[in-house]
Batch of 3 targets.
Target 1
Amino acid sequence: MARRSFYKVDAELLPLIGSDEAVLLAILENAAKVWKKDQNGYFAIFTKYLMERTGWWQKKVIRVRTRLVELNLIDYTPGKNQNVPGKYKIKR
């Protein structure tokens, strides 16, 4: 049996930002706890990884990520190409 992942979603955020945004934020917060960060607090994640974790297509991941940036919950810096992942920073 494959190893299952669980993410802690902040229930208070659900009515404020929406379920998709809360789920993606929970995945990013989980990654922020264990992934190596640079001197500015950013950690790198490929969009493909987020697609695998959520089961979403690329455009949906990008749309939800953009919404989290607009809500000022995360900072995002795009990667340069498919070999350099984007960088994320949790702001809450």
Target 2
Amino acid sequence: MNWHNIKGKIRYALILSSIFVLATTQKVKALQCGVKEIEIGTVYNQYDLDSDGIADTFKAAVTMGSKTAKKSIESTEETGTLRIYINNDVVFEQTRNGYPYWQLSLITLQNGRTFVDIESTVGSDDDCMHGLYALRNGQLESICDFQEPYSKYGNYYHVTITKVSGNYLIADAGAQFFTTGITHWTMKFQYMICKCQERHESFERTADSFKIRYKTMPVKNKWTAGKKLKAYKKAGSRKAVYTVKKGETVKINRVVFKKNKVYFQIKNRKGKTVYIPCASKYKYKQDFKEAMFAG
């Protein structure tokens, strides 16, 4: 057999193989980009969690009952434990009481970086814990706490990542604030990386003020004050510039976060725009009569 013909066939086979691998790699990247909801117990092997260019295996498992309980938590059938395995190693573990359940997603940015979105809630749909995690040094570490701004100002809160746009996250957000009750809005988060020695990663809100989304709420933008409320020129100001009288109707246009405190931008009938702080606890005498509370 002609040696030149053999080399030509080998070269041709290698070219075809390279084209196939390249096409397959591009297809996998296209499938990975975005939000992938995770089913508990299913193994996923198309995601690169440690950014080494090699796909890892990912699996989440939940067990209920006394065998999963830690010593510091009461051992009952109400106890549940989530364990996350990457390449068969346990990289995350969370144990909770009260019949907990978990929702997980893999979030992949356009730059190829993949993160784990972990949300847990107890059986009463309360006490939500939700964060975004990155694999570092063999463990999942929290890089964004989605619940931090809400814990002191309401309950039944959620932040659901609905879309990835480049290296940004689009999230559907909602909370049952003590001032307004059920409230919905949309947020955007930007991927940030500190080019220091440890290359610290985080996700930051692109703004602190968000338009309230009334189309998905049980109330319209017409609020009647249930008592006198002090209003301020800016969110976080100390000197009141206006008093919303009991029975006065206003519009509440935006929810504002400043230094982990919550405020609302309101506008009265005369078109004056001011800000009121969100109540830090539920009161029987509500700030606004239209505020609706579930549960």
Target 3
Amino acid sequence: MGPKIALLLSGFSSDLSAVVCAVQLADRTGRRFYTLQAQDPGGVPTPSRGETTAGGRLLDGFRFVAEFAGVEGVQVTCHLLGAGSVEQVAEFLLANSITCLVVGDWSEGFRKNQEDWLNELRRSLREAPQRFYPDLLVIKAPILAEADLKRIVSQSRRLKKLVVSKKN
């Protein structure tokens, strides 16, 4: 059994590449992962008005994740967190024995906030008495150009059609 994976959506445009990364990682390991998204932007830092969001509305990110994971034959469970605070995310990761967290790399102006937030999350997990794994592996997916993302999704759909046609 491979690592237990969670994807944390933040609303930044890099969420798209993080979805691709999480789905591909899950496909190579346990074929299953969790997706987390904050309902209230109080915890996980969210984009400024100038930053493009991955989905616009709250559930669009979940829809894209579910569709892309389905194309790849990977199972995903989506969870809406209240504020997405470090404590809430840590509780979820601990309760589900998550060993790997996939996030999108935030834009230049937010990288320090992201590092601080992730360091606080790691500290919180290390201090938890029920933690079974020494440290959380965090994978930061880079921002993909829109053309690259469209190519990846298109190739995945074509491969899925080929597999289905060969089975029939």
